[in-house]
Amino acid sequence: MPHHADGPDDVDRKEIVADHSEELKTNWERALEDMQAMAEDREDQGYETLAIPAGDTTTLSPSMGEDDDWGLSHVVPNNYAEDFREYFEAFSLDETGVYQMESGGFVFVVTECIDLDEEVVVFVAGSYDMRFSAGLVRTAVEREEMHTRVKTLDGTLLGTFDHDDPADFFPEPEQFYAYDITESDDPDRLSDR
Question: InterPro entries, from UniProt (predicted)?
Answer without folding.
Answer: DUF7529
